[in-house]
Design goal:
single chain, alpha+beta, six-stranded antiparallel sheet, five-stranded antiparallel sheet, 13 helices, 18 strands, flat, His_kinase_dom, Sensor_HK_Regulatory, histidine kinase, transferase
Length: 533
């Protein structure tokens, strides 16, 4: 290879960082003189010597090294490149499909010379080809011979394909239904209503059963109506949208269900008669036991509430006195110092203390808001009022308010995936985000990043807030959602210990749950998941 020293270095770097198997092979010595890291890794090898020992039996599974060399040499006499797809095996026995390419590294004026060998993993491509060919072979068995009626239509509601079962079910000959409107198979009285439902479904298609809890009817060619179950699906092909109905005749099933209902009614009457007799004989005993149990439960509940109330009062007094003392002290000291700056040129100093007073008052307001929220939650005065909201818009507006709390060089990063519309209580979700972000800012240092992620999926919505803060020990994580609880490593940071308790209660109101992942000095991630099903 005619390369300068710099060229050689560049060539080596390029080869070593190639995602493909790249080797230089000497057919005179029957050995590789170079093999890059990808090539070694592909065959689970550690060095070039080990590679040459392994490839001594041949590169491919079905021929020896000499056979391979002869095949390549003959091919390169008339072509600039040798290429073939084949199966390969690693030392551990793992087999995979690969595409091997061989080129001469110099002008092919002789049959000898060094070969540049490339090998790419095409396992996924081969797997797809095999699946596709098998899928085509199975399509007719799955579609045409399915033991249920299958009718496919285009977006204009014209029938484009039916299977044999559907033709027999509705009494039509093969291909007779092609091109007809889907309303052909419906009761005449429902044709107009069905068009309205079809337009709505075309606007927002989804895989779902039809008419759950309703007695659906379909119409045969002779006008006969019969009971059916229908499921809907859809797909796109070449930019065109198609819809599939899966239809089952449940006439016999309906008949059996009706007979079962009548039998169950008879059995129910007999059971009710027996149950009434038993109830009459045991009524006095049941009432007595019920009264005793209620009295016991009321007493236990009263004692439990009294004990809990006493503990809460003690913790509230201790927490309130501690949390109120700091901002009140700041207000008192700043108010006293303002009077010491009467001159006009002392305005900057006065504004500094006024800012401290405002900040302390804001802190007191937040503390009182947390106490009031806990009280309302305990009394059941907070309810969820659901409405559709735009997730990115809600989060960005909320983060704009939280940004006022950021420390020096802290920043908030927001990521969203999935649909943007969510049915939830906007106010409660906003308070959850504010609480989690405030905690993340409070317990993270300067120049740190707080990441807020949201994801909307069909079955659930996920909100996570990740910080780079001081973290939480495993022992403290067990009590994080208890009222007034604070970790042992945050005693010097202001807080009430109510934030996560409130978040958990709001999440319960929205039908979700909260989880925490954290390590000391590595940060914390709080995840809120709301079920949407």
């Amino acid at each position: 290879m005619n390369c300068t020293s710099l060229d050689q270095q560049l060539c080596h770097v390029a080869l070593e960082n190639s995602p493909l198997f790249v080797g230089i092979y000497n057919p005179d010595t029957h050995k590789f003189i170079y093999l890059n890291k990808t090539g070694l890794k592909m065959f689970e090898l550690e060095n070039l010597e080990q590679a040459n020992d392994f490839f001594l039996e041949g590169l491919r599974n079905n021929e020896s090294l000499i056979q391979w060399e002869l095949q390549v040499s003959e091919h390169l006499k008339t072509s600039a490149e040798f290429c073939i797809d084949d199966s390969f095996t690693s030392p551990s026995g793992t087999k995979f499909w690969g595409r091997i390419q061989v080129k001469l590294l110099q002008e092919p004026d002789t049959a000898k010379g060094h070969w540049l060998v490339n090998l790419s993993d095409i396992q996924a491509e081969k797997h797809t080809q095999i699946q596709f060919s098998e899928g085509e072979a199975r399509f007719e068995a799955l579609f045409m011979h399915a033991a249920m009626g299958i009718v496919m239509m285009d977006k204009s509601s014209k029938i484009v394909l039916t299977n044999r079962f559907a033709n027999a079910l509705f009494g039509y000959d093969s291909n007779e239904l092609i091109g007809m409107p889907i309303e052909t198979l419906l009761p005449t009285a429902l044709a107009g209503t069905h068009r309205q439902h079809t337009e709505k479904y075309l606007h927002k298609p989804q895989i779902r059963p039809m008419g759950i809890g309703l007695d659906l009817k379909a119409r045969k060619k002779d006008g006969t109506l019969f009971s059916v179950e229908i499921s809907l699906s859809f797909f796109e092909q070449n930019g065109n949208q198609y819809f599939i109905s899966f239809i089952n005749d449940i006439t016999y099933k309906k008949k059996i269900e009706m007979e079962m209902i009548l039998k169950n009614q008879e059995i129910k009457k007999l059971n009710e008669s027996l149950e009434q007799e038993v109830m009459n004989r045991t009524n006095a005993l049941v009432e007595t036991l019920k009264d005793l149990e209620e009295s016991k439960q009321e007493l236990e509940l009263a004692l439990s509430k009294e004990k809990e109330l006493g503990e809460l009062k003690s913790r509230f007094v201790a927490m309130a006195s501690h949390e109120f003392r700091t901002p009140l002290t700041a207000i008192l000291s700043s108010a006293s110092l303002i009077s010491k700056y009467p001159k006009t040129e002392d305005q900057d100093k006065r504004e500094k203390h006024i800012h401290r007073i405002k900040s302390a008052v804001s802190n007191l307001t937040d503390i009182l808001e947390e106490f009031l929220s806990v009280g309302k939650l305990e009394e059941g005065k907070i309810e969820a009022h659901l409405a559709y909201v735009e997730i990115p818009e809600l989060v960005n507006d909320t983060l704009a308010d939280v940004s006022n709390l950021l420390k020096k060089n802290q920043n908030l990063r927001f990521e969203h995936s999935g649909e943007t519309e969510l049915l939830t209580d906007k106010s409660l979700l906003r308070k959850i985000i504010i609480n989690l972000c405030s905690n993340a800012v409070k317990f993270s240092g300067e120049s740190s990043c707080i990441t807020i992620r949201t994801q909307k999926m069909p079955s659930h919505f996920v909100l996570s807030v990740q910080d780079e803060g001081i973290g939480i020990s495993e022992e403290d994580q067990k009590h994080l959602f208890d009222r007034f609880f604070r970790g042992v490593n945050v005693t010097n940071i202001q807080g009430t210990g109510l934030g996560l308790h409130i978040v958990a209660k709001y999440t319960e109101l929205l039908g979700g749950k909260v989880s925490i992942s954290s390590k000391l000095n590595e940060g914390t991630t709080v995840t809120v998941q709301l079920d949407l099903a």
